[in-house]
Amino acid sequence: MNEKDYLKDISEIKDIMNRSTRFISLSGLSGILAGTYALLGAFIAYKLLEDVNYNFDYSTEILKTNYTILGSLKNSLIGLALIVAFLSAITGYVLTKKKAKKNNENIWTPASRQLISSFAIPMITGGVFIFLLIERGIYGIAAPAALIFYGLALINASKYTLSQVRFLGVLEILLGLLALVFFGNGLLFWILGFGILHIIYGALMYFKIERN
Amino acid sequence: MKDLIKNINKLFDHRIRLGIMSALMVNDTLDFNTLKDLLDVTDGNLASHIKALERAEYIKIRKSFIGKKTNTKYNATHLGTLEFKKHLAALERIINNKP
């Protein structure tokens, strides 16, 4: 065996270690679509808020923790967020499955299971946290907390997938913290974090990885 | 050069056995089908290489039941981990020791 073969051995070891711990067939296209759903959702939310003659300059109003949004409006906003999340998850699943098939990668592997559970734990924690806050009439923290928990979930999951996901997570957390600094602009930061950032990230991934 | 090759482990001088060990270095346990997909080999081929590694006590086989189906999982032993690290170090030394 010569030196070249030993080099090949080392690259093979690296490749197998990577492939057995990372699920890399995440679709960039699903990021673009998830971002688009988030933008549509935010637009509908904006219209709903406008419809109830809601003064959109809510930077002062929201500070009152027992601020009472009409019950039905609250429910439709929560429903809207859930629909956007659900649609994004379904789209992500379908496109990822398609991509995995193309890459000849199995979709249900130890790596993908780790990916899902490491993402789901911070995300579900965040979801329950936000739901309980809203139940107590604390609305202002919902958008910043959603961004922060989502960012933490991404960073946690990035160990089991493309390392670039970690960077997206850091940006989401920064946006979440900024949303707290510029309190009362939740919808704006929601649009930036879940809409614009997803579209940019998805497009970068799509052109960088999927097109070659 | 002879000195350099001394620590090369003959058992790891094969693509599939090297692959099995690499995967078990970074995963606590893996089952047969996952290894098969990962290394892209046939059942019989994988089974024979697993047996070779097991005979050397580099990996351990754990059988459990999920309902009525057997679920076989593999993990690297302490000895296997040590030997693999030695092998890796030997590979690195050879590559860094260009004439």
TrEMBL record, chain A:
Keywords: Membrane, Transmembrane, Transmembrane helix. The keyword Transmembrane helix applies. The keyword Transmembrane helix applies. The chain crosses the membrane at residues 23-46, 77-95, 115-134, 140-158, 165-183, 189-207. This is DUF308 domain-containing protein.
TrEMBL record, chain B:
InterPro entries: WH-like_DNA-bd_sf (IPR036388), WH_DNA-bd_dom (IPR027395), WH_DNA-bd_sf (IPR036390). It comes from Aureibaculum flavum. It comes from the Bacteria. Pfam families: HTH_34. Residues 16-95 form the Winged helix DNA-binding domain. Gene3D superfamilies: Winged helix-like DNA-binding domain superfamily/Winged helix DNA-binding domain (1.10.10.10). This is Transcriptional regulator.
